[in-house]
Design goal:
With 339 residues, this protein is mainly alpha-helical. It has 15 helices and six strands. It has helices at residues 2-19, 21-37, 57-68, 71-84, 103-111, 128-138, 143-150, 172-186, 189-197, 202-215, 222-234, 242-249, 259-262, 286-293, 319-336; strands at 47-51, 93-97, 118-121, 163-166, 302-305, 313-316. The strands form three sheets. The protein has a two-stranded antiparallel ribbon with strand order 1-2. It has a two-stranded antiparallel ribbon with strand order 3-4. It has a two-stranded antiparallel ribbon with strand order 5-6. Helix 6 packs across helix 7 (143-150) and helix 10 crosses helix 11 (222-234). The radius of gyration is 32 Å and the shape is elongated. The termini are far apart.
């Protein structure tokens, strides 16, 4: 009883401690000090922080100050990270901070390695080298790292242009695996059946689509062009597609294909070799892949750009008529002085 009696005043004193006005005044003063120190003050502008592997807090502070234009925000964020003891070299990645982000919030995100996904887009790509260079500009990986990860078995047929989300420091192998997964998902049962009805594999559809895209910029004409090449394939005729010659030569700026171009020895020269080229000559858009799969039936075997330079083509099943169309087009080129 005596011990219990003696403890009660102590407990009551503790309760009274939290009720005393000076305690709350002190707490408010501490909070105000923290706020005035800048830890709770939002940044003046938005910022994108890129932390490279092996980086340190000093480099992080410099980068954040430059990106945000707010040296105080960067200094307080760096101070908190130093206080946390985090290894910055293990927090490589990209962090996007909105205007008004406090140093506490910024430091917490870096500490937790809560990266901001990067939107990755690619289109108008013809070669793996071009794709690698495009990714090099958007992600941490280098073009050489990407190409080394693709090896000799992965071609441009596997990639479908779109907008993807990746972490900035994604490994090349992870990126390729996810893009392959998207490719396989896009090629669902319905599209696979459509390709089989044409007697084509997904890769072959991608090759035809790439030629079609180079042949015409007119979306309403692409299905017709695709069917023409399918007709030629079924008859065992060489495709004789000018874009494949341009690819073989390495010059897509050519306006006229001459004898010296047609003589180039390359598996991509469809004037010298029958069948499809070994890989696409560009990464075709999804809409063009669909145009191939849904190509309308017709019996055309020849096409020639119209002499009105409208971007459309004249189609025919007659070689004699095709020669006339070609004569008119060459005359129009001559008239404009296009060599």
């Amino acid at each position: 009883m005596v011990a219990a009696t003696r403890q009660r005043p102590i407990m009551e004193n503790k309760k009274r401690f939290y009720r005393r006005p000076w305690f709350w005044v002190a707490l408010i003063l501490v909070a105000m000090a923290l706020v005035s120190a800048g830890f709770f003050r939002g940044s003046n502008g938005s910022a994108t922080l890129k932390v490279y592997p092996g980086s340190d807090i000093a480099a992080l502070e410099d980068s954040l100050a430059t990106s945000s234009g707010d040296a105080s925000f960067a200094k307080h964020t760096a101070f908190l990270l130093r206080l946390s003891g985090v290894e910055i070299k293990d927090r490589a990645g990209l962090y996007a901070f909105e205007s008004g982000t406090t140093p506490i919030d910024a430091a917490r995100r870096v500490y937790r390695h809560a990266q901001t996904p990067v939107k990755v887009t690619f289109n108008n790509i013809r070669t793996m080298q071009q794709l690698a260079e495009r990714l090099d500009k958007q992600l941490l990986m280098s073009a050489d790292d990407f190409l080394a990860a693709t090896g000799d078995t992965i071609t441009t047929a596997m990639f479908i242009p779109d907008t993807y989300e990746f972490y900035w420091n994604v490994a090349p192998e992870t990126l390729i695996r996810r893009l392959r997964g998207y490719h396989d998902k896009w090629w669902n049962d319905k599209r696979m059946e459509a390709a089989q009805r044409l007697g084509l594999t997904p890769d072959e559809v991608a090759v035809i689509a790439s030629i079609v895209e180079e042949e015409t910029a007119k979306s309403d004409e692409r299905g017709k062009v695709a069917r023409l090449y399918i007709n030629r394939l079924r008859k065992g005729m060489p495709l004789q597609a000018d874009p494949t010659v341009k690819f073989a030569v390495g010059d897509f700026s050519l306006r006229r294909i001459g004898a010296k171009h047609l003589a180039v020895e390359s598996p991509y020269n469809t004037y010298r070799h029958t069948g499809l080229p070994p890989t696409p000559i560009r990464i075709a858009e999804k809409s063009t892949l669909e145009a191939v799969l849904n190509a309308p039936e017709h019996n055309y075997l020849y096409m020639c750009a119209r002499e009105d330079f409208s971007g459309y083509h004249n189609f025919t099943a007659s070689f004699a008529e095709h020669r006339r169309n070609a004569f008119h087009y060459r005359a129009a080129l001559d008239a404009r002085g296009i060599k």
